[in-house]
Predict the 3D structure of the following.
Amino acid sequence: MIVRNVKDVIGTEHEVRTETWLSRRVLLKNDGMGFSFHETIIFPGTETHIHYKNHLEAVWVIDGDGEIETLADGKKYALEPGVVYALDEHDEHLLRGGNEALRVLCVFNPPLTGQEVHDESGVYPLETDVA
Ligand code: 9YT
């Protein structure tokens, strides 16, 4: 059995930070679960363009506020604690932080390996694409 505390990920290579979010990746591909599991904090007032062409992601909002806008139809959804969204169609979207830090738990299938950040199209590469 694997037992971890997110505190033990802080400050390690499995805590990845960009200008708009930070991600603490607690379970990764090497853990053999078939998914990865992360705590992510979206910084207030930011906007991130995301398009997970190679992954499915589900997101559960724990704290804070924000908004997601799906680009195919321009729909906007308010994010608050308890909201869960699943990008079941690899939905291209804009993720906006609100007034407070938006803290979410996310699951990725296939699992991330650990170091992924979005490319200019908002995509994470598949592991086989990583040099
Ligand atoms: C909600 C979301 O996709 N945020 C971007 C970071 C991602 N959750 C990650 O890599 O953990």
Notes: Residues 21, 23, 38, 40, 50, 57, 59, 95, 104, 106 surround 9YT (CB under 6 Å). The radius of gyration is 14 Å. Residues 64 and 102 are 4 Å apart (CA to CA). Strands lie at 15-17, 21-27, 36-42, 47-50, 56-63, 66-70, 76-79, 84-86, 93-97, 102-109.
